[in-house]
Hints:
Number of helices: 13
Strand content: 5-15%
Oligomer: single chain
Number of strands: 4
Structural class: alpha+beta
Radius of gyration: 21 Å
Amino acid sequence: MFRRLxxxxxxxxxxxxxxxxxxxxxxxxxxNRAEATLKRFWKTVGVEKRNDGYVVTLDKRALKTPSGNTLxxxxxxxxxxxxxxxxxxxxxxxxxxHALPMTSIVSRAIDTLAEEKSRxxxxxxxxxxxxxDTICFYQDYxxxxxxxxxxxxxxxxxxxxxxxxxxxxxxxxxxxxSQPEETKEKLSKVLAEFSHWxxxxxxxxxxxxxxxxxALALVKRYITVEExxxxxxxEVHSQIERWGEVEDTHDVDFHDIRRQxxxxxxxxxxx
Length: 271
């Protein structure tokens, strides 16, 4: 399917049709209409070239963000457009918002993070994670957890310290800890150089992993989605090793964090 979408300038994808009404008086966009009705209202999904970029179309109409902006992607993000189109194609009967991670992160970038003021607010919010960063809080028991911390956290902290010339403290208690102000200032300057696409990816990855350092390493392509997920879930993996996996809990979390991190890294693709 991806190949057909990429090769055809005006691909049409056959889908099943389910009609529904939208609440009267509500401003309608393709996205918020679907969210309001939770039912598929479109027949066909496509990707078209438009205004030196790409749009995803539902029944030949350009998909819009929740704020009503056209979901227009630049020429170097054709793959992203394809992934967004595939998400909507895969909504066969009832809309599943959790299955639209690419649509939501693209919309976030376009609706909010295109403005410097908004990026500044997000930047400030993300830097607050540094004092409680997941990978800065070590435990000395049990041994399997210690081994996982060493394997997945130590290299990330070393990379961040060296790459950005910063000091990052590691803690053994969650009480009364904070990172140096100079570190925060340097990382703030790093984030200030991010485009709205990079900031959207950084925001999602930080929220998913509860770690600014893991998110930064992912956005900078130092680690993969799998490595980022493992670093964020070290304690969970340690528990699974000791006690086994809890069905419909660990496995759901496993797939969700990969979905979130995968959408973040795919947003940064240039293809």
